[in-house]
Fold this sequence. Notes:
The complex is a heterodimer of chains A (421) and B (333). Chain A is of the alpha/beta class and 421 residues long.
Amino acid sequence: xxxxxxxxxxxxxxxxxxxxxxxxxxxxxxxxxxxxxxxxxxxxxxxxxxxxxxxxxxxxxxxxxxxxxxxxxxxxxxxxxxxxxxxxxxxxxxxxxxxxxxxxxxxxxxxxxxxxxxxxxxxxxxxxxxxxxxxxxxxxxxxxxxxxxxxxxxxxxxxxxxxxxxxxxxxxxxxxxxxxxxxxxxxxxxxxxxxxxxxxxxxxxxxxxxxxxxxxxxxxxxxxxxxxxxxxxxxxxxxxxxxxxxxxxxxxxxxxxxxxxxxxxxxxxxxxxxxxxxxxxxxxxxxxxxxxxxxxxxxxxxxxxxxxxxxxxxxxxxxxxxxxxxxxxxxxxxxxxxxxxxxxxxxxxxxxxxxxxxxxxxxxxxxxxxxxxxxxxxxxxxxxxxxxxxxxxxxxxxxxxxxxxxxxxxxxxxxxxxxxx
Amino acid sequence: xxxxxxxxxxxxxxxxxxxxxxxxxxxxxxxxxxxxxxxxxxxxxxxxxxxxxxxxxxxxxxxxxxxxxxxxxxxxxxxxxxxxxxxxxxxxxxxxxxxxxxxxxxxxxxxxxxxxxxxxxxxxxxxxxxxxxxxxxxxxxxxxxxxxxxxxxxxxxxxxxxxxxxxxxxxxxxxxxxxxxxxxxxxxxxxxxxxxxxxxxxxxxxxxxxxxxxxxxxxxxxxxxxxxxxxxxxxxxxxxxxxxxxxxxxxxxxxxxxxxxxxxxxxxxxxxxxxxxxxxxxxxxxxxxxxxxxxxxxxxxxxxxxxxxxxxxxxxxxxxxxxxxxxxxxxxx
Lengths: 421, 333
Ligand SMILES: Cc1ncc(COP(=O)(O)O)c(C=O)c1O
């Protein structure tokens, strides 16, 4: 693509953009809040004013359990005949990388003098992380969650309630993540003067994609140090799953300047990469691999959309990857060739789930299982030394996995019939 | 009808001034645009919103004509987008009905092609709809396995089509001034107004910046939140009055574009209060959509509602000071 057809965008490489992507496409009422957040990001996160980042790191150690291990996966290394290391974000408090961001933002809201926290959640992972962080820091918290997701993710709803958060059902549309984000933005547009919106991934208007990335960047910073200690060198490739892309950018960020390290963002291929234009339906959420440029939820990025610009319903067996957009920085890194987009389908992810559970004694989240599915499919292209981010643990997914496994003949699955008896 | 004062300046070819309008600065003989002319000549103005395609484009045509007869001075037509983040439940529901009915941008523009209203028409839509328009020839993901070589989205095809259809302006609720340059330039080139929203949180430099870019009118958002007539309407009116004080819109013929107040206005009495406080126009949407959704015969009910609102606005104008009234009392049904 030539630079001449870029006049349509905010000036390239401004603070608010990543190449062609990013920006601040929000209602006017939110602009002052977004600018206030820019200011807070610069002061507290970038310049560690009042020791903000020190407190964040301390709390992530004491409350969050950081640093997480980088573990050599012995049987996977044997199976693929190369060195496979797992970054164990499943061991972060709450069971996923989500706390890195949630705790960072709730703490930031406190420093900013905000009195109330709101957040959206899809599968409930970001909602539970935010509820935990809000309880830990004694902030009132309300979570918006689609009606469909509430019904599919009951245990997470209870966890949020246990931590003292209100859970507001969203009935619009298909009642999933996209609608939950819409509704949280509407709340924010009403309560913006007192409330901080803890967005759940590296999406949304500037500065959210940078802010969330910087809170998640600890994953890659630790992993980079750890692999050099363990293997004596940088890896040939780093693999992470990508929904909105927060574990992805968090894992990649420290490696982006290391040109020799290949970065793979593995998306949900769902049941097919074909798009059903007529019904505005994508049976996948492979946004980086198949999406087109547009504006959703405050940013220019790659999207699953119809030719007219209506956002499509996406689909994946993994609720946490089920989103029609993706972080603008990832869109940019894909366009310039720094990140390779990939996808594996539901079945490969389920096999990845079973394989890690079986071979390594680690039950991964279905989201992370996509990265493991890709490892199986593409390991020969990944070089001799590979780091895979295990973004979360899979306890939350057991019911889905049993259901989906029974429908299929999966090579890596144990005999699950015993569970049905 | 051809002689109706609302007609003046509504034919784009008669307009010497571009939408960027240097003529505006001296508050002079000519108005910057169709939209500004409609508001100033029919001061105080009634601006109405309907979602196009709710429940069908054919119905929308009849409803728009009814509003036009009832005294609407400007008519906003919503082009439905699947993620209307600035909208409350009423307009969300209207958008869902329109999308379920299969409303597309192509159908929307055909509706506008067919409409012959005295009130200038504006399109209200989200930025992605503008970016994607005319891009339907581009290869989509489903056309090939490999990532398609993409053309970057461009605002110009939409603006060109809007101008061709006879629209006078565009309102984009998710496009703040900071991101508006490409669209503003395209609108300037086609003599369309890009209408900006000023919120209760807009202050200082940002307020000045927006006021300096504004064309047509400035949409003064009466209160924080989303669109929709709330239960507590009097509260909404009170909030609008506070906004008006802060923005000093009490001199309608001073420099700058007219100011119209929206978000929560639903009755003639509220229109009166808002105009009396010095607004140049009131914007009413959700209250009209309630009629579309609930009335057995929406067209006459919309016409009567427009009359009520316009009468209220005029009453407010009579009671306010320093406000020139040259709009006739709307015809009785
Ligand atoms: C364990 C886990 N991994 C990954 C994701 C996907 O989010 P992101 O792409 O922002 O990392 C989620 C989202 O809920 C998750 O719970």
